[in-house]
Amino acid sequence: MGAVLAALVVVLTGCGSQDPDEGTNGVGRLSATEIEERARKAARGAGSVRLSGSVVSQGRTYRLDMRLTGDGGIGEVLAKGGPRFELLRIGEELYLKAGADFWVHQEQDGGEPADSDLAAARKLEGKYVKVPTGDPAHRQLSGFTDKDVLLEGLIALQGKREKGDREEVDGVRTIEVRAGKGEGGVLSVALVGTPYPLRLERGGGAGVVELTEWDKEFALRAPDEEQVVDYGKNISAGE
Asked: Highest taxon of the source (predicted)?
């Protein structure tokens, strides 16, 4: 009996002293501020990432699904209450692809669209429109395809940093960095492999995004010439 009790004590002692960071990359042992810094550094050093989720900016909600590299990006954007459109950027060359509803909105000047507006929109549907660099929309839309700009803007925690729960994001063990007791945002950082940020709950209910496919290579290819058309006007990106 004494031997059994001794063995049980050893087992229980071993369970109680188990290191929660065993088998991890070790960032869980760092302070919340240090974990955030490691995550930002990892994000900056990555060649690519997929960003998906919802973002609230200037009172408008956008749903994003973008694949980003250091030299461009591709994906789709859906503004709440507005049409969906696709973006492709390679270097300075920016292309926009959208359905007829998007182009009808561009053509009409309030009220019901004219027949000519509908006809013009149908011609543009499913085509890539190259956005001139001088068009004000070029700068705004390019922001959706700029990895560094988008990540820097999204990973913006506000308030005192504290370590939060240990959870999993898509099967990967994570640790939270909570800002302002969660009101200023919650960043979930990978505890396995490179400490990439995997999920972000933005402060003030400004959206939730997931960051996946870090450093997964993909090619950006310009559309075929026959798929590209010239809109000939400035594009409204804010409505």
From this structure: Bacteria
